[in-house]
From TrEMBL:
<dbReference type="InterPro" id="IPR007387">
    <property type="entry name" value="TRAP_DctQ"/>
</dbReference>
<dbReference type="Pfam" id="PF04290">
    <property type="entry name" value="DctQ"/>
</dbReference>
<feature type="transmembrane region" description="Helical">
    <location>
        <begin position="125"/>
        <end position="144"/>
    </location>
</feature>
<keyword id="KW-1003">Cell membrane</keyword>
<feature type="domain" description="Tripartite ATP-independent periplasmic transporters DctQ component">
    <location>
        <begin position="21"/>
        <end position="152"/>
    </location>
</feature>
<keyword id="KW-0813">Transport</keyword>
<dbReference type="GO" id="GO:0015740">
    <property type="term" value="P:C4-dicarboxylate transport"/>
</dbReference>
<keyword id="KW-0472">Membrane</keyword>
<comment type="function">
    <text>Part of the tripartite ATP-independent periplasmic (TRAP) transport system.</text>
</comment>
<protein>
    <recommendedName>
        <fullName>TRAP transporter small permease protein</fullName>
    </recommendedName>
</protein>
<dbReference type="GO" id="GO:0022857">
    <property type="term" value="F:transmembrane transporter activity"/>
</dbReference>
<feature type="transmembrane region" description="Helical">
    <location>
        <begin position="45"/>
        <end position="63"/>
    </location>
</feature>
<dbReference type="GO" id="GO:0005886">
    <property type="term" value="C:plasma membrane"/>
</dbReference>
<comment type="subunit">
    <text>The complex comprises the extracytoplasmic solute receptor protein and the two transmembrane proteins.</text>
</comment>
<keyword id="KW-0997">Cell inner membrane</keyword>
<keyword id="KW-1133">Transmembrane helix</keyword>
<feature type="transmembrane region" description="Helical">
    <location>
        <begin position="84"/>
        <end position="105"/>
    </location>
</feature>
Amino acid sequence: MKPSPDARLERVLATLSLVIIALISLANVVVRYITGGSFAFTEEFSVFLLVVLTFAGASVALRRNGHIRIGLLERALPRGPKRVLIVLQWIAGATVLGLIVWFGGLLAWQEFQWESRSPGLGLPQWWYIVWLPILAALMLLRLTQQAVDRLKGRELGDES
């Protein structure tokens, strides 16, 4: 059995995000039950961590070739045209992720310059936003690794 491609950093980020979401949500429920009040930070942190979890999980799925796609055309094509299709798929994905990296980075920079604060806790807004281009760049790296693997005929994790 061939080893599955790894995206360890993203797996750790996703795991930590999920654990922290579960812990702060549980703590919030317990405190609300006991005191009738709740922690103010839980919603703001939970939403942020859910975004991190989503991007990190998508990055792991990209690396393991686990994203949903319609493989009918790909399976029907001979080797040469199939390779062209893989490159076109990479170009489309890289374009979208590149735009997210660019505009997410621009937004984070503007939030830093404007010294915007989060509505709930008053933390610098860029602390939350800067993760968008970072995680999109990681996804772009994993997309590229996946495309190279597919072009070389290594389609690990492909259950389609």
